[in-house]
Amino acid sequence: MRDNPHSGPLNPTRRTFLLTTGSTAAATIIAACVPADANSAAGHSDSTAAGADGPNIEGAVPIILRINGKDYQLRVDPRTTLLDCLRETVALTGTKKGCDHGQCGACTVHVNGRRVNSCLSLAVMHDGEEITTIEGLGTPDALHPMQAAFVAHDGYQCGYCTSGQIMSAVALLKEPCGPDDAAVKELMSGNICRCGAYAHIVAAIQQVRKNS
Length: 212
What we know:
Elements: H1 14-33, H2 38-41, E1 61-67, E2 70-76, H3 82-89, E3 108-111, E4 114-117, E5 130-132, H4 145-152, H5 162-172, H6 181-187, H7 198-211
Parallel strand pairs: 1-5
Antiparallel strand pairs: 1-2, 3-4, 3-5
Helix pairs in contact: 4-7
């Protein structure tokens, strides 16, 4: 005997069960797809990308990263790599996560003008430093000469390694490097292209070096 005569049926129909569980599952999936800092990410056009009002992370450390000419005030777990900070916190996903062990070069960015593997560097180590990612190198309407050369020479296939290749290639322009292809290959050896577009990549770099 039911305590509340106005309560629902004790044995719901199959249709009621499916509607209830389906609605619950959909709500769960949608919630999981919304970034934790979605509200702050929407307003990143100004100089502050994420502030102290973000998610409450135990042991978080306040830092300021100057990324592509903008200051980002962040609170990050001290164990967060620069790569994960760029991709997950600042939402600059052009820098790719490949091996996550510093062996493929897909995550290459510039820190104070020098190239680094961002997967091997902690974000807190770069408080106040200048960071440049592929997003800050050029735009679709105003490509960096190296980006334009990669397009002209078809220096990519799947494209996953391309941002890291370009960032390394741009850094190479300011590094001591011999004039021949062998010297370029040596300085680009830290960037792996699993598609094997190396000849095109070297040709693109040499074109920019010739025109510089």
